[in-house]
Amino acid sequence: MLDQPIAQIKKLRVEFQTKDGPVVGVEDVSFEVNPGETVCIVGESGSGKSVSSLSLMRLVEFGGGEIAGGQLLFDRRNGDEMDLSNADQDLMKQIRGNEIGMIFQEPMTALNPVFTVERQLTEGLRIHKDMTKAQAEARALELLRQVRIPEPERRLKQYPHELSGGMRQRVVIAMAMACEPRLLIADEPTTALDVTIQAEILALMDRLKRETGTAVMFITHDMAVVAQMADRVVVMFRGNKVEEGTVNEIFENPQHDYTKSLLAAVPKLGEMQGKAAPEPMKLLGEEGQNIAPIPGTNEVLLTVKNLTTRFAVKGGLLRRTISNVHAVEDVSFTLNRGQTLSLVGESGCGKSSAGRSILRLVEPMAGEVDLDGVDIMKLDPSGLRKARLDMQMIFQDPFASLNPQMQLVDQVAEPMRNYGVASGSELQDRVAQLFDKVQLPRSFMRRFPHEMSGGQRQRIAIARALALNPKLIIADEAVSALDVSVQAQVLNLMMELQSELGLSYLFISHDMAVVERVSHHVGVMYLGRIVELGPRARVFENPQHAYTQALMKAVPIADPNKRKSEKDLNFKPIPSPIHPIGYAPEPSQYNEVEPGHFVLTTDSGY
């Protein structure tokens, strides 16, 4: 039978035993995957989407879970249908990797660091397919070519740590595809990757699916990726399936309130066309919101000139400096009071180093930084401490930047105690006001960081950054680790605070849709230089530099009618930013293509 589903999950229930009794990971979920189709399972963290896929692979037992009810029917290669929920682990070993392949979220943990790529690719082939060593090696080479890894012969002899994130993920995909499985499960396979690499990997998976007829079960929380990949969509919420339909039905006519709110919270590229200033997003369930644009002022707050930061690479017997990583190379820009300038680019382009150099958390090699008339680069330690009253930072991972042993009230009060700004009851009042500002209940003040969700922790980090009434806040990927709906709330909060308090943000991000939503000005970074800088509308609607155009092409759009094909994407590999000691790069020179819109004319390597 051709029309029979490859996998059917029926009334699945998964429980985890804890000290406080059983916790239900998946309550009651049923769906099926047909041959040659991609089913996307969407939901936020904790909705049970990964637990469903781990149950089908029978890996959930290794994580302390047990399948408490339901059937997992799988149509095997020889035509037998069997229920995997009660198969023994020996039989599962034959099915795993051979008939069901899996791609995990974090490629470095899915690969074994002590074996070469070749050894890991040939292992499954020799166990499941009884190939000789030579046959398996030939197939491994062919697989690497299929996933378009450059110089595949060389890569086979390398170890995982010698490859970049995107290349490791390609190796993991090649491993999952090695035995031509009937079903491929992909669990957030692109979450940790840059936009350009994500676009290539999605196009690659789509092409492999068409060529091999494999069915794909794709798990993600990113609605734009769903629009790009799915044939059918299953929406999960708190361990239950709340809606299922074709990709067009879900995007054009969502029925369940949760699906509607998920779609409303996704910033879409191109939404801000024709709008002069950023404005908060309109979220469902928050009626009568005050959505006013945030014009900011024309008064310059921060001026950065010729900022250059390099890191020494040491080597040889005496650990001498043999070369330098050119992390930030001749970067200049200005930021106005009450406005947002975003720095965008892929990982390794120097955007975080630039933000840290401005605060002198990393010491720059050269350049000027002027914050409201104070020359930050010339300050001694006590002067720098005083200047930090005016500039604060919000980091990417709120859990790592909070102290796990302090109550939240003390974390928010600490900056004010340090600087002697307030004490006693005045301090308590000020902390309570900050909790109100970031929309957290005052009852949370006695809690510890581990008792909060990720979005709530990020709000605490924002409250702490606001404690000293700074003029400038540098937000380094402040929302990239959050779920869609939480991300939208935190972005709205940041914009409301900006309009209320006149804050200036230097917003560092790789998410183009978020940047379009929040920015007044945008700087695109590549290999340590700003290659294009200008007002948001001009950079997004009239990108001039080749790299900016490639970035815009790569961004997936949350609309199933605007899918990208593989031929739209042609990216050059990024050259190395490491240069020998005597290397003297040319200064950055710009061409003004329209008022305030600058494009780099120096060779940027792209």
UniProtKB/TrEMBL annotation:
Pfam families: ABC_tran, oligo_HPY. Keywords: ATP-binding, Cell inner membrane, Cell membrane, Membrane, Nucleotide-binding, Translocase, Transport. One of its GO terms (cellular component) is plasma membrane. It is a peripheral membrane protein. One of its GO terms (biological process) is peptide transport. Residues 9-263, 302-552 form the ABC transporter domain. The keyword 4Fe-4S does not apply. One of its GO terms (molecular function) is ATP binding. It is found in: Cell inner membrane. Gene3D superfamilies: P-loop containing nucleotide triphosphate hydrolases. PANTHER family: ATPASE AAA-TYPE CORE DOMAIN-CONTAINING PROTEIN, OLIGOPEPTIDE TRANSPORT ATP-BINDING PROTEIN APPD. Belongs to the ABC transporter superfamily. This is Peptide/nickel transport system ATP-binding protein/glutathione transport system ATP-binding protein. It comes from Ruegeria halocynthiae. The lineage of its organism: Bacteria, Pseudomonadati, Pseudomonadota, Alphaproteobacteria, Rhodobacterales.
